[in-house]
Amino acid sequence: MSIFKNHKITVNHLMGFIPEGLLTHLSQTTQVDYYTKVLHGRKMFYLLMYGILAHEKLSQRSLEDTFNDPVFKVLFHLDEQESVRRSSISERLSKIDPAFFKQAYECIYEQFADLYAPYEREKYHLIRVDSTMVSESVGKLVEGMDNKRGKKAIKYSMGFDGLLPCQSEVFTAPGYGSEDIALPQVVMNHVKKQAHHQNIYVLDRGLQSTRNMDTFTQKDITFVCRAKENRKYVELASLILTDQELDLGDTLLIKDAKVQLYTGQTKKSKKETSYYQQTLVDQEFRMIVVESKCDHKLYVFLTNDFKRSANEIAQAYRRRWDIEVFFRFLKQELNMSHLISLNKNGIQVMLYMILIVAMMVLIYKKANRLGYKTAKRRLAVEVRNLAIAMIVVRCGGNPNLMFKT
User: Fold this and answer.
1) In 196-235, which positions are buried (b, 16+ CB within 10 angstroms) versus exposed (e)?
2) Per-domain residue ranges for the chain?
3) DSSP notation for 37-60
4) What whole-number distance in Å separates Cα of residue 66 and Cα of residue 228?
5) pLDDT value at 405 more than 50
6) Which residues, at least 6 apart from 122, have a Cβ–Cβ distance to it below 8 Å?
7) 365-397 pLDDT, tens per residue?
């Protein structure tokens, strides 16, 4: 029951996309309820979802208080006699099957993605791919990458379709500190879910490996990335036409060319010692160089897309900034930088739940034309008011007398 006028989508609409049947089905097809008495998968799902929305800074202590709160139990139809301790929540997060939460996230994403009509989608299906690191208060992490400050860190790598997070991975192994290892895995895993996709994957400077670009091309995966200005290449032909307009609005087109790129290969000398040699790959790529009019900075883009104009490629890369805004939203509004669990299992569970809540807030934000902070605050207010209304009904009252619309 919403107290906000002119809202097209309310919390009741959003909760309709998380039916009890879905959680029941996932409980049966995963091991989420194996050897547990109280904190079943469904209860953990609602506890984490409610906690993320209701608390500015979530903790295991606040989750304990939330579960034992009668208002929470009324809202999600839980047994009023059940109670849990912080230690039980901590242990459950470390052992609960993350597949339950991953599959819930993927199912809910598919339902939410259908909410916005085809005319609202972009002309080209841009998937922004990037990573963000979290190292705050993680000195006791069981798994993690060592950072320069002597602490361990974890990496969240995601795909973002412009409105919703469409792919997510948690990396703790040191090798994934390299974006040339982490980002291609995100792209490949997303492609597996969309066999006949028309996506363009937009990446920043993290993708530099010529081998990865070659693999993308062989698998018909279209990409656009920003290259380093000193990138070594051989120009094969210019793609700029004689009468082509070089003014792209706020940038000038400096180069549009078909190129071959170098890649490093390990060789062995006659004495069986290894050395590194730069060689050209056979695959042809497209290099576009534009200059910003305001600060005269050069931007070098690499792509395997030869169909779209140079301006369209440049504009596609510009939309990559959307994922940076999304990461800021996750960290500032949904407190993703604060880790509730210190092992990878619990971290994965929390990531999927944060993304589910993020999708609820983003759909609510878009439909009701609100800002990030306002959307999250109002959604939390609606959840609270829904609980109050249920309590009023249970006590034999009429909630409409309290919530006048």
Assistant:
1) eeebbbbbbebbbbbebbbebbeeebbbbbbbeeeeebee
2) 11-104+341-401
3) SS--HHHHHHHHHHHHHH-SS--H
4) 49
5) no
6) 162, 319
7) 988 999 999 999 999 988 888 888 877 777 777
